[in-house]
Amino acid sequence: xxxxxxxxxxxxxxxxxxxxxxxxxxxxxxxxxxxxxxxxxxxxxxxxxxxxxxxxxxxxxxxxxxxxxxxxxxxxxxxxxxxxxxxxxxxxxxxxxxxxxxxxxxxxxxxxxxxxxxxxxxxxxxxxxxxxxxxxxxxxxxxxxxxxxxxxxxxxxxxxxxxxxxxxxxxxxxxxxxxxxxxxxxxxxxxxxxxxxxxxxxxxxxxxxxxxxxxxxxxxxxxxxxxxxxxxxxxxxxxxxxxxxxxxxxxxxxxxxxxxxxxxxxxxxxxxxxxxxxxxxxxxxxxxxxxxxxxxxxxxxxxxxxxxxxxxxxxxxxxxxxxxxxxxxxxxxxxxxxxxxxxxxxxxxxxxxxxxxxxxxxxxxxxxxxxxxxxxxxxxxxxxxxxxxxxxxxxxxxxxxxxxxxxxxxxxxxxxxxxxxxxxxxxxxxxxxxxxxxxxx
Length: 441
Known about the structure:
Elements: E1 54-55, H1 62-73, H2 92-104, H3 108-116, E2 120-125, E3 128-135, E4 143-148, H4 155-158, H5 162-166, E5 179-184, H6 202-215, E6 221-225, H7 228-239, E7 244-249, H8 257-265, H9 275-290, H10 293-300, H11 306-310, H12 312-320, H13 324-334, H14 343-356, H15 359-368, E8 383-387, H16 397-403, E9 407-412, H17 420-423, H18 425-436
Parallel strand pairs: 4-5, 4-6, 6-7, 7-8, 8-9
Antiparallel strand pairs: 1-2, 2-3, 3-5
Helix pairs in contact: 6-7, 10-15, 12-14
């Protein structure tokens, strides 16, 4: 089937974010047959897999770091934007200071040492090497949780929550709040392998995560995610693999049909919305109209992004342009302020993408997914939701209760954004403890 043959798009999928005349540009690609994905993958590993759990450590050759510095120094800069805000994109002053810090102050080896201080492993699932961090709590009866990142995030996002979750008594919690924590890198991201065949969408990843938890010997566990991590986590809940008892999300799929229709039409908001619903509608309306350039390109032509594979500054700017509030936070950090994230935090994440050469391979997940990203999926398992004010949209309780009939926790926090675990790890860990408390055996 030609790429010019566009079937009707799923509402509000990542290929159909913008309404009106742009909708045709965001129509879904043809749905490829996933004959290579076994329907019983949850119950049995594929025969070609190496089911061993192999220890893993990171050591980037010095030549790679030297090449990174050379490329930063050789950046050909554009002229300054012609506006005083970010309406034309990532601002030159932010990128100049990021480049200066990256070139002169940043030390990858410090992050590498910190990462290698955590138990890391590799295992092969469905033909792809999956990298993951696995930290067991010292407390008995810890609840296993698999935590999934999104884009442009990585395992860097969740590293700050490992100690609060596995060692809660050192962070204001009780021993009974403890978790065993599993943090995998999505296929095509970080140190996981890059898929060499089509079909690695959130459904297939969800099946792989169920295999991973089975290999680790967990017969009862929970799952957590935001961004693409939410898409994967909700698909796990829909698959209901043996042992999964509930999920937590910080970027839930809750948008009702009437709200979705109004957003796609690009008109006025529906009448009768509550204050929370009006706020969420305004956030979504802004995002669909102003924040989707990256998603449009990645969902339609990810292979065209040669620039982010060749230029570290190009990659950094592309990653910073994800959502307005995250960019504003990062811009303030590089202007000298400290608000949850540090310059090193931000550069750890960007450098991980650069050194693993996953700019384009990570973008392919947008092309692969056929899901309606924000539409309720009919999850029947218990669900906990945390709503953060600087997320792409702050899910109202009313929408959340309709989307998840077995809602066991709804926490509306006063700080935190799209990368909540990274920005506010203590708040995030508190939410997970509260969200899963009723699901502990």
